[in-house]
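Appendix B. Worked example

We walk through a single record from start to finish. Start with the input: the chain for Methionine import ATP-binding protein MetN, Zhihengliuella salsuginis, length 329.
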Amino acid sequence: MITITDLRKVYRQGSREVVALDGVSLSVAKGHIHGIIGHSGAGKSTLVRCLTLLDRPTSGSVSVDGRELAGVSDRELLSARRKIGMVFQHANLFDSRTTAENVAYPLELLGTKRSKIKDKVSNLLDLVGLTQFANAYPSQLSGGQKQRVGIARALATDPDVLLCDEPTSALDPKTTDEILELIKDVRDRLEITVLIITHEMGVVKKACNSVSLLEAGKIVEHGPISEVVADIDGRLSHALLPLPGEMPQDLPPGTIMDLLYSGADAVHPVISTLARQFDIDVNVLAGSVEDLGGAQFAHLRIHLPVGVDIDAVTAHLTASGIAVSVKEA
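Next comes the structure step. The output line below is what the pipeline stores for this chain.
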């Protein structure tokens, strides 16, 4: 559905060039929710502007449902933008317009007949759960309700892609969960593809099928949630399934190992089996178990005493489907 190939954006400041996007490539299947995560300055805002054609890429391509968007003519620009509905961090509603009038605005710009606008707005407000607030003004709505209006407005032109730019960063945790559930519900009902730009790993955990890590204008890690989490040394894995607490400073001599396993293995008694197999004491320093990407993952940090055959332990764990990373004690 969405294919971005070698996307570059270079800004010129006098004689100086600033590379904001440096060869970004990714593909998102129809009906998936893909998260693009990165810190401030990573290039997220530039990527949003290039995807919505507010900025022309310096080079590369953006294709939605087989249609190339990056190189469309100015005359075709409005039609191309309808392919992508935009949800902003702040809903950016018109204060002088009611909820229904805000949702109707994109349809008015297209010259849609009033009767069709009324039916479309009614259906969208029902979809986002705001039918009873059709005549309310933004000042009468909560933050979460405003974001629901923004989502309905973004869907008014029947886009193929819903692009959400930090859609929950201004919301409290409970409202964040409600908005993410709404986005998933919209995806399921409309079979729409969703891109979520965020700096919050919690958003990726709760809503996304796949994720990309954007850094200095480049995608440095990318893949389905279940695959990136399974990479025990990957940065996304550490961020999605972190171990609580700091590394203990007063440990006795020995070896520290991180273990990562999933699926049926995640509920097996790994530690007790290891202790019996090698007749050793295993000290569990930290652990985390979560459901991510449709699979259950367990991440443990253990300490083994001096004298243990680490190669044999590693081979045993690896043969059991457990990823191992040996740390310095």
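Two observations about the output. Residues 173-190 form the longest helix (18 residues). The chain is about 30% helix and 30% strand.
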